[in-house]
Please model this.
Amino acid sequence: MKLDDKNVSEKDIYTLKEDDKKEEPKETPKEKKNKSWKYFFYLAFILIVTGVVLAVSLTQGNTAEQIYVLFQEMNWKYFTLLCIAIVFNFGLCSFILWLYVKLYSKHYRYHQAMANQAIGTFYNGVTPGSSGGQVAQIYTFKKQGVTISNAASVMVMSYIVYQSCLIIMGIISVATHAKDFLSFQTIDITINGAVIPIPITIFIVLGFTLNLMVIVLLMFMSTSNRFQSFICGKGINFLAKIHIVKHPDETRLNVQTQVENFRVEFRRLQSNIPFTILVSILTFVSLIITDAYPFFCGLALNGFESFKTVGETVDKIFLSVVYTNFHQMITGLIPLPGSSGISEYIFVKLFGSYFNAANFATEGGINAVMLLWRFMTFHIPFLICGIVSATYKTRGIPKEDRIMPTDKKTYYTIQMETYDERKATSDMKYKTSMIGRQEDLAKKIFDKNSKKDEIPNDKNSKGDKDKK
Model:
């Protein structure tokens, strides 16, 4: 379908949706085999990089001996606290997912949300740029009896809330610790024997700008049709002319679809303010716990001197949150499966001076914390979630109503196919909410005016009594 260069309407989305249904070919056995090999390659990549990281971490000087001593002297109370924080955070993320689904299904169970969260965690870890988790979760929702349109709605809403919370935390991190940028180590790149030091600040700024631009552009385009037309028309045409965008028509439709989906689900969130506030608070709590993992790892390996005041403890926790935010901004720029290799490298660069214990003055200390942090927050959960993904089954769903992982669908096509249904329910919910708010406001105004009218009457009646 050829689209107009300037405007893409909702009708285009519906038309393409129908075209995709007719033209979308079934996946051949060869394509299925290629997909299996692709996931095998991703898994192999993660394992190989993990082995390389272990080898490098253990072969620098007497690092292996230092790491062995640190793990031997581990504080098991704080290690248990780290494990509790990881398990609690997984349960909290599952609870947030359960809350989203409860908007549509009263019979959805918490253990189903836990299984879905585990499957999403595994596929996010095994695919570059965490791109496979959303589709896998939608497949799982369908197996659990949730309709595709509702599942797509849940994923878009959770993305909006999560990304917004992430941006807010990023702004706080940059605003409160902008001076720390200059103290970070540089990333040294060697070209023809010449070492070129690149400040890590550049990557933090790029990552933060990218995250901010995505959510800000979506918000502006969803609220301003003129701005949306400008981006989809002249903006994409300009990028096509300078050869940044190769397929302008497809890109234009993709952007339009994302904006329309953002608009639909953002209005749905606006129509239920108490729910939005609740999931936003819980998402903030989950992000803070995740960002505090390096602090817990440092406690477990005795990486800090004794804290004299509560303020020092809070400051270290907050610094862990800030540095982990910077870590996410940088690793988000490089779409590798599980961010393997780059995640460990950036962690060492950012947290090199974070731990102040005497035995952490050498590389052995920071490498020990990095290994503990990486294995406890990625590799072990990845393995457990992989087992859940391979063994999870749901009873009671007919085969003809299931969407299997072998279906040739993407998150983009699922959004397009369910757009009209989700838009209808979102508009109805938004209008109902607006009517309810107007009625509440009118009632408050009426009650307020009634009280004002009663006050003069009371004074007049009191004056009449005095005269008598």
Summary: The mean pLDDT is 77. The two ends are 89 Å apart (CA to CA). Residues 419-467 form the longest helix (49 residues). Residues 69 and 364 are 10 Å apart (CA to CA).
